[in-house]
Every structure is written in C-alpha cells, then in structure tokens.
Fold:
Amino acid sequence: MLETKRSITLTGEIKVPDSDRTVVYLNATVAEDGEGDNVTQNIQDSKLYEANKEAVRQEIEEFTQQFYAAQDARATETTEQQ
Structure:
C-alpha cells in the first residue's frame, strides 16, 4: 500500500562577502501532518565560520525564522480546514 506525505522543504546556503565558498548549508522540512519537522545545519568551512561567526549566526537566525513561519502557516491552514 502506497502512503504519501507532503512537506515543505527549505534550503539555504550562507556565503560571506568576497568568497564563493559555502560557509553553512541549511535544510529544513515542515511536514504537512506536523510529524517529523526538522532543521539541520552543516558548517562547510569552519575557518570562514569562525572568522564571520556573528554575521553567519544572524543568517542562521533568519533561516530559522523562515522555518517557524512555514510551521505557523501550516498550523493556520490546518485550523482553517477543520
């Protein structure tokens, strides 16, 4: 039996000025049914991360806020459908 689940996937790459290198890779999934939401971050370049920690962390926070917004939108859609 096929069981299908829908989700929203957000991806992000944080780069610093004057560099084409990805410092942090971000991935988030918001499941339509609310089960299995997750956020992951992978530091790809630890030297650039350390050198730009404050700015990179601000970008991570912005990504996290987008994740929360997707969760909130799902919650609103679920409430409206009931």
User: Anything to note?
Assistant: The chain has two helices and three strands.
